[in-house]
């Protein structure tokens, strides 16, 4: 079967050499970038499911956050046995507290939103269940505030009311979004451009490995009849784009005939250094999630003196604020369902990465002779007269 090059020259295999007419055009055109959609499923698929940097960032933050114990303080004392402690330890029959809260923290990082449903029986909270953010739709009242949520799963939609007694059916945790009143902005969405660059570089490099790298350039045509006709030009351009343009066709060899000649004019992938491009994109992704790049093994980042300092930074700037946020929200949500007021306080004393900070604080407080015992307790985050029982 004749190639499209021979068809363009009407079957001629040897073009006359005396012509000087030439037509040049670029093999590829600069077009607008193609970005991943901002929907939850698209970002979760391209990010968490297909990008190792995003996957590791989310898992690292979520797993670290679930390691922080939550103390229940009631009447100034830390309670070792309390209905809330039992609820948080075993929220439902299908999963443990750690499993539920790991999903909760991961949803916040992926979607910017996380939802907990309370199973209420005669006014008592008997269980907690995590709900997927992409299945939730907010129901607003005339004033614009949320009056409930519609949760759709298995072809059924369930209305979760916010006026239920003693507590609302659902707790909505959301990260700040400057342009939305009812949905949060996730770190994954903020890192979307870097995510697409990182994934595109990976796909491009894989295609180059599959096809053997070849640079882009221009096709030069010489023929006795003069320049290509408009139809020939458009057909040649279209078939080149379909057969040789794009990441999937990167590096495909070309067989030229009929007065066609290839002139490389673009930088090669080696010149563009995709490896460094991927490292830059990976650092930006880690920045959005609050994970020091050193902890991910990304080279070229000398912000932290050593690994221990980077680990401290992860806990101080990312994990601890996130755990405090969730604990406070749970306290306010669950509080009305129990007779005696209580507080949920993250216990950071057992976190090895923060042990030096805690030891330094205890030393400074213990040496402060001008403080009384109760003042020292308050300075280290303990309730007055607090002790476990």
Beta-strand percentage range? 15-25%
Strand order of the largest sheet: 1-10-11
Helix content: 40-55%
Count of DSSP H/I helices = 13
Beta strands, count = 12
Shape: flat
What structural class should be given to the helix and strand makeup? alpha+beta
The biggest beta sheet reads: 3 strands, antiparallel
Mean pLDDT: 81
Model regions low in confidence, pLDDT < 50 over at least 5 residues: 10-31
Radius of gyration: 30 Å
The SSE order reads HEHHEEHHEEEEEEHHEHEHHHEHH
Q: What is the CA-CA span between the terminal residues?
A: 87 Å
Features:
3-stranded antiparallel sheet; 40% helix
Layout of helices and strands:
Layout: H1 4-8, E1 23-26, H2 40-48, H3 52-66, E2 70-74, E3 77-79, H4 83-89, H5 97-111, E4 113-121, E5 124-131, E6 136-140, E7 146-153, E8 156-161, E9 170-174, H6 187-190, H7 192-211, E10 217-221, H8 230-244, E11 260-264, H9 269-272, H10 274-289, H11 307-334, E12 343-346, H12 355-366, H13 373-379
Antiparallel strand pairs: 1-10, 2-3, 2-12, 4-5, 4-9, 6-7, 7-8, 10-11
Helix pairs in contact: 3-5, 3-10, 3-11, 7-10
């Amino acid at each position: 079967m004749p190639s499209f090059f021979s068809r363009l020259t009407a079957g001629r295999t040897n073009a006359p050499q005396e012509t000087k007419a030439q037509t040049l055009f670029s093999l590829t055109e600069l077009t607008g970038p193609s970005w991943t959609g901002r929907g939850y499923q698209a970002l979760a698929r391209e990010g968490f499911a297909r990008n190792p940097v995003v996957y590791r960032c989310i898992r690292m933050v979520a797993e670290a956050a679930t390691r922080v114990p939550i103390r229940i303080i009631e009447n100034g004392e830390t309670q070792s046995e309390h209905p809330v402690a039992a609820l948080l330890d075993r929220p439902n029959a299908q999963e443990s507290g750690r499993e539920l809260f790991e999903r909760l923290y991961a949803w916040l990082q992926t979607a910017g939103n996380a939802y907990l449903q309370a199973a209420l029986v005669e006014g008592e909270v008997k269980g907690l269940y995590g709900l997927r953010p992409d299945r939730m739709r907010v129901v607003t009242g005339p004033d614009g505030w949320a009056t409930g949520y519609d949760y759709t799963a298995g072809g059924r939609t369930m209305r979760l009311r916010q006026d239920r007694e003693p507590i609302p059916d659902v707790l909505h945790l959301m990260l700040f979004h400057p342009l939305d009143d009812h949905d949060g902005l996730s770190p994954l969405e903020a890192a979307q451009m870097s995510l697409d660059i990182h994934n595109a570089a990976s796909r491009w490099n894989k295609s180059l490995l599959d096809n053997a790298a070849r640079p882009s350039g221009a096709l030069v045509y010489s023929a006795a009849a003069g320049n290509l006709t408009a139809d020939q030009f458009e057909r040649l351009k279209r078939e080149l784009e379909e057969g040789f343009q794009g990441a999937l066709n990167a590096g495909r060899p070309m067989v030229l005939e009929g007065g066609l000649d290839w002139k490389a004019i673009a930088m090669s992938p080696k010149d563009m250094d995709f490896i460094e491009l991927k490292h830059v994109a990976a650092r930006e992704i880690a920045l959005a999630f609050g994970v020091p790049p050193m902890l991910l093994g990304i080279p070229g980042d000398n912000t932290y003196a050593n690994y221990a300092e980077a680990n401290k930074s992860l806990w101080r700037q990312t994990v601890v604020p996130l755990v405090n946020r969730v604990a406070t929200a749970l306290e306010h949500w669950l509080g009305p369902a129990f007779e005696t007021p209580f507080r949920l306080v993250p216990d950071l004393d057992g976190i090895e990465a923060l042990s030096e900070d805690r030891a330094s604080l205890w030393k400074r407080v213990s040496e402060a002779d001008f403080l009384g015992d109760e003042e020292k307790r308050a300075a280290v985050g303990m309730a007055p007269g607090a002790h476990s029982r």
